[in-house]
Amino acid sequence: MKKTLAVFQKEIKHFFYSPIAYIVIAAFTLIAGIFFYLYLSSFVEAAFMDMIRSQQFRSQPQRFNINLQLIRPYFWNLALISLFVLPLVTMRLYAEEKRSGTVELLYTTPLSVGNIVLGKFFAGIFFYFVMLIPTFIFMGILFIYGDPEWGPVLSGYLGLFLLGSAFISGGLFISSLTENQIIAAIGGFGLSLLLWVIGWAANYSGPGLSAVLNYLSIINHFEDFAQGVIDTKHLFYYFIFCTFGVYLTFKSVESIKWRS
Amino acid sequence: MIEVRELTRYYGEKRAIHNVSFEVQKGEILGLLGPNAAGKTTTMKILTCYMPPTSGGAKVAGFDIWDQPMEIKTLTGYLPENPPLYSDLNVWEYLDFVAKIKGVPAPKRKEAISVAIEKAALGDVQKQVVGSLSKGFKQRVGLGQALLNDPQILILDEPTVGLDPRQIIEIRELIKKLGGDHTIILSTHILPEVEMTCGRVVIINEGEVVAEDTPGNLTRRLKGSERTVLEIGGDAKVASEVIKGFSEVQKLDHRKIDKSDHVRFTLETSTDIRHDLAKAIITKGLNLYELRTESYSLEEIFLHLTTKEEVA
Question: Is B59 strand, coil or helix?
Answer without folding.
Answer: strand
